[in-house]
Design goal:
281 residues, Dihydrodipicolinate Reductase, domain 2, 4-stranded mixed beta sheet
Amino acid sequence: MRDVNLELITEVVKYLSIEASTIANDGLVKSLQKALKTEASPVGVEILEQLLENIEIAKTEKIPICQDTGFTVVYADIGQDVHFVGGDFNEAINKGVAQGYTDGFLRKSIVANPITEPQNTGDNTPAIIHTHLVQGDKVKLTLLPKGGGSENMSRLKMMTPADGVEGVKNFVVETVKIAGPNPCPPIIVGVGIGGTFDYVAYLAKKAITRELGQRHPNPTIASFETEWLKEINKLGIGPAGLGGNTTALELFIEEFPRHIATFPVAVNIQCHAARVKTVII
């Protein structure tokens, strides 16, 4: 059994909150640079160049890549041989979020009591926290600041098994088409298939935490990812929705067993900032 002080969890979450909002991942930078070489629209090329410049400014000046610094989503893979000491795990994470968003001068966007007495919480808490017990004595924390614009374009549909793969593809492409310029393309598309009404949405969002360029280990699903991505980029929405062949940088699929009578599908869209950071303790 390994003891992990929750003060360390708070420190790491604070670091991740600031780092994710200000420092783009190498995979995102490489994907945008790759898109520059294949984008056919002159306006699209100019926008991609501006996005890369914006990323460099954010990194150099330590300021947010985007003014919407999102709803903080935390994925915690906790080794079953870990023993937390010094308080409450969820409180430690929220304390880290509060410190990160305050000390990092990040926009606080969370409203408590959304339909009764709406009021900004003032520190971007509470976070959405997903915990998963795994083997070992490590703690893997992945932080995803999820902007409101892209989140609004997400969809879930309880399809029928008869709809099949073609039905899923059509729903995914339709979702991106309906979204148009609203999620700030070029986007990352997360697709969840299977599970239940609630779990399929989790799968779709978890999918967008995958490293850009990383294909699904199942060759068949990997082929769907590349095929559906091509279909999406034929829509012509393009960077910032002003036309072009770079509507999406990536499409990731996650699946889970389903009931024989159900076929839930969810699509979660991520904006071009694609903010996500991971630390293993």
